[in-house]
Design goal:
Chain lengths: 420, 420
């Protein structure tokens, strides 16, 4: 597989490719001719194959040199596979239970062979069906806290951090997608924008003219471009989470780079809040999904609270970070001042997370890439009602993040907009 | 010169080394045996030679593999010369009038051959003698605004910025010096700390026990380690400025990396404020230097105001930055919101600059590396009075940066401490 010129695999050639990898062949078991291979990539950027043999299954993910959603008019570096591989490796160090296992990586072919998650489903699909996942919030809170804390200078040395920064800095093209599609295009006329016409025409126009909102979006874009806090997943929406009732995994970190902590936290919160507003489009009768809406609210609260508490616990226990070295804070007064500083730090992360959540909600309704939670609502007018409410909350979060005193107030704001 | 194993040059071998460089030989003129060579490095880290021939002079700066101030027990990568060369090159693009011209760079030998600045003096020495430099404030304000704005995503693309980040990220060792010596060691017992004993013993102890101050210092260290705003000089004190009454140059950017804008601005302000408090140790009679003190205050105000106004002017005119793209802000309301956002941004830079200025003042009095402004005051008790006042203001700036509404209030605080 290695050192060959890049070529996209297909179902016909993949078995031969995998046969050359003894560990993979063994994992699949049986004869290569009996392996069942299907392409399942429903994402925007890559080929994804599930390969099953008599002993087990694997997933093969190969980058394509263009954006699949748009076509080959939009080239995209294969090298993103290298960043995904490095992110998966780093995340597995700190949240091994919550990432897919990587079996093989081929940089030339931009191909990662990894664990077949089964019977996991993409969380977004579960949210559409109204499925409750009892371990989701605790697991994602753990993933966020463990990966974001441990790849920061709160946990490690400046030298390690600068090495991480240099490793991921070349992931330029995927960061640029976020810079454009999340922070900029939804607020202007851009050829790739889509929205639910004509229902949202007025709201789209209002957003384009909302000077304060645009300034707020750009301030967050600036933060995204200049804040090197931790290795972030970079695309942690509910389509990047696969789970069952007992197991949770975070996949697809090809947007990873050293960025602001709140961007990952906000991605989870924003997508949960989209799912909340989408319920109205999925229920057979009004109020039918009231209890599921409450479950989503509980997840919003539990993800933030769980992340907050776990991140702080890791920080309080840390001894090896170059920032805020524990050796400097040994007296009772020191520890009290340091705890106040931690609370101040987490308050900023809270505001960051809300603002990024708002930006993520807006881009899914007025930008290029939409989400199934909303797209699967067949009646466009009914969908527009959900979308409009999500836009209202998104705007409020992005513009007034500092005004929310806690996560319960965020839930309260969503409830008020839903009921209005 | 290139591809040879690194070896420190000395006066005896340097002429032969330079003879191999035709452009340099020509610039010096005459016979190599007639070149006058003297080692003038009074800094902490490097060899510096002035070479003069009949046609002209040059400076040769070569990194040593250890910290000169401490000795070979403290190794330091030669590669810092590479970062200095790249920083000089980048700064010359945006502030060509204010940087020394580079004639030759040899990465193997960690050697930069550059313009001999003559009859320039190190500004710190001029400040000690009470010399006024009429162009200083405007020139340094221009240097700060031009280099910091133009190496940010306000001026350029995200791709350019990430390339800069990757280029300078390996300058780990010199950043680590700042992290330790500026932000950490002054606030704890560290073997390399020096202070004016016994006069400052109580103040040193008080700083070690000042929990809120330590938390503030660490918050600024965290910012130094994670804020990737612009290519900063990284060591922009008055010993890195050479000038005459008509010409100003910024030298020695070996600490350069992509860091917080306020760190450079604060370095200038903090060192001016140290010079202010040092005057009391240099005047022959009380109040003798009152007018020079006022001149320094004028510089503090003019540097900040000049930087602020010029940075904003560059920003208002910018069309090419990926952050806050001008195309997004075209209506009257847009431009008004964008101007408010610029003011908000500059307010944060102001607070950052004050806090970093405070940290820089403190480290020069309680840490390893001191400054001649104070060290040249022969009477230790008299010196301690100056140092103690500078420490008071440093503490106030670091701890309460947000409380200052403008630069005039900073000057007012310095005046109050001086007069107390």
């Amino acid at each position: 597989m290695s050192h060959a010129v890049y070529a996209p695999v297909d179902g016909a050639t993949l078995a031969a490719t995998l046969t050359a990898l003894p560990a993979i062949s063994e994992r699949l078991g049986g004869k290569a001719t009996d392996w069942r291979i299907r392409e399942v990539g429903d994402g925007n950027l890559n080929l994804v194959f599930i390969v099953e043999g008599e002993a087990g299954g694997i997933v093969v993910k190969q980058a394509l040199p263009y954006v699949r959603l748009v076509g080959d008019s939009w080239p995209l570096p294969l090298e993103r596979s290298w960043f995904e591989y490095n992110a998966l490796t780093e995340q597995a160090r700190y949240a091994p239970r919550l990432t897919p296992q990587v079996f093989h990586f081929d940089r030339e072919q931009a191909m990662i062979v990894m664990e077949y998650l089964h019977p996991h489903v993409i969380m977004r699909k579960g949210l559409i069906r109204g499925v409750e996942y009892p371990h989701f919030a605790a697991d994602i809170a753990e993933f966020l806290a463990a990966t974001l804390f441990n790849t920061s200078v709160l946990a490690g040395s400046a030298a390690e951090h600068k090495a991480r920064v240099a490793l991921f800095a070349p992931n330029i093209a995927l960061c640029k997608i976020t810079e454009d599609l999340v922070f900029t295009d939804p607020y202007r006329e851009a050829p790739l924008n889509r929205w639910n016409r004509p229902w949202l025409d007025a709201q789209k126009q209002a957003f384009e003219r909302d000077a304060a909102l645009k300034a707020a979006a750009q301030a967050r874009k600036y933060q995204f471009m200049t804040s090197a806090q931790a290795l972030i997943h970079g695309d942690l929406h509910t389509g990047s989470i696969m789970l069952t009732s007992t197991d949770t995994r975070v996949i697809d970190p090809e947007f990873a780079f050293i960025g602001p902590i709140g961007f990952d936290v906000g991605a989870v919160l924003g997508n949960l809040l989209i799912a909340y507003f989408a319920q109205e489009g999925h229920e057979a009768a009004p109020r039918q999904r009231d209890s599921y809406r409450e479950w989503i609210f509980d997840q919003v609260k539990a993800v933030w609270t769980g992340f907050h508490d776990r991140f702080l616990a890791l920080w309080r226990d840390a001894r090896g970070g170059d920032a805020y070295p524990a050796s400097l804070f040994t007296s009772v007064e020191d520890r009290s001042a340091m705890e106040a500083e931690r609370q101040r730090f987490m308050r900023v992360i809270f505001e960051d997370s809300l603002a990024f959540a708002g930006a993520k909600m807006i881009r899914r309704i007025l930008g290029l890439a939409h989400v199934e939670d909303l797209e699967s609502i067949a009646n466009a007018e009914r969908r527009a009602k959900c979308e409009s409410k999500a836009l209202q909350l998104g705007r409020q979060l992005l513009l007034e993040a500092k005004a929310f005193s806690d996560i319960a107030e965020v839930v309260g704001a969503a409830r008020a907009i839903h009921g209005a």
